[in-house]
Amino acid sequence: MSGTDQTRCGVVAVIGAPNAGKSTLVNQLVGQKVAITSAKAQTTRARLLGIALESETQMILVDTPGIFAPRRRLDRAMVSAAWEGAVAADAVLLVVDPVKQRRHELMPLLDQLKHRSERKILVLNKVDVSKKEPLLELAQELGQAVDFAEVFFVSALTGDGVPELKTALSALMPEGPWHYPEDQVSDASERLLASEVTREQVYRQLHEELPYDAAVRPESYEQREDGSVEIRQQIVIARASQKPIVLGKNGRRIKEIGEAARKELSDMLGQKVHLFLHVKVDENWAESREIYEEIGLDWVR
Ligand SMILES: Nc1nc2c(ncn2[C@@H]2O[C@H](COP(=O)(O)OP(=O)(O)OP(=O)(O)O)[C@@H](O)[C@H]2O)c(=O)[nH]1
């Protein structure tokens, strides 16, 4: 099925402070891993779409980067991408971590939400690790600031409460034909997804030593005749002094990063993966338009 008169289709913008659990929630709604999750804040650099289906309804989920005070060009691009996602939405989901609320980042979002015309839904996430009473108080407080159409208490991690949220969301979508074929869960190219997987490993394995100045660029992505795929990527760092960190002793670190990413990619793609990683030093990468476009961001001034 791909769109008749009874179908519905709409865009859902997912916003929230960094680490609120947006990517995890998108994955739950879609039912498989499409966006990258990480324990470290602000890692969702590229804007990935997840597509969730609920009977006759297709929901295009815009998984936005964490929003924070923009200083550098890269940060401004992320903020712009985040809000761009919310421009044409049929619903906006505000995801809040009730324990680590990050109020300095949450409050500006609430202020902006007040002036938006979309239906707004408040999602208090991580109920598996929060107490009930403060949750209700928080829902009430946030509800006084913004006119939320509904409030949901969920755990994106365990999936608790997510089916109810999904049903409510689908009812908010306008009637119309589906934008994507039924079997398509993400329109992010596999190349880009593959780079995201590696980038997640870079952060996961080096988060203590390496600041945010690293990107993973897709170099090539080729299907081999034997049914496997050959992927080449560049890990771009800003300073030569970071190179030994990424490589590790005798190249051990980059080998581990590559091995973990390769395994995950192989699971995701359902085929054997040959992954080749190179480290490149580019002091100005955060100012490079080419790299921006490759990692799925718009160039902003
Ligand atoms: N206990 C618990 N942890 C969760 C839940 N949802 C997400 N997390 C964890 O919270 C952390 C952040 O989750 P993400 O989904 O990456 O958060 P995000 O909002 O996309 O983060 P940014 O990319 O920084 O904007 C990860 O370690 C998740 O495993 C939940 O319902 N319960």
TrEMBL record:
Lineage summary: Bacteria, Pseudomonadati, Pseudomonadota, Alphaproteobacteria, Sphingomonadales
Region (G3): 63-66
GO cellular component: cytosol; plasma membrane
InterPro entries, A to Z: G_ERA_dom, GTP-bd, GTPase_Era-like, KH_dom-like_a/b, KH_dom_type_2, KH_sf_prok-type, P-loop_NTPase, Small_GTP-bd
Domain Era-type G, residue spans: 8-175
Keyword annotations from UniProtKB, A to Z: Cell membrane, Cytoplasm, GTP-binding, Membrane, Nucleotide-binding, Ribosome biogenesis, RNA-binding, rRNA-binding
Single GO term (MF): GTP binding
Record protein name field: GTPase Era
Organism of provenance: Aurantiacibacter spongiae
PANTHER family associated with the record: GTPASE ERA, GTPASE ERA, MITOCHONDRIAL
Its membrane topology: Peripheral membrane protein
Region feature G4, mapped onto this chain: 125-128
Annotated localization: Cytoplasm; Cell membrane
Region (G5): 154-156
Region (G2): 42-46
Function description: An essential GTPase that binds both GDP and GTP, with rapid nucleotide exchange. Plays a role in 16S rRNA processing and 30S ribosomal subunit biogenesis and possibly also in cell cycle regulation and energy metabolism.
Protein family according to the UniProt entry: Belongs to the TRAFAC class TrmE-Era-EngA-EngB-Septin-like GTPase superfamily. Era GTPase family.
Biological processes annotated in GO: ribosomal small subunit assembly
KH type-2 domain span: 206-283
PROSITE patterns in alphabetical order: G_ERA, KH_TYPE_2
Pfam families the UniProt entry points to: KH_2, MMR_HSR1
Binding positions (GTP): 16-23, 63-67, 125-128
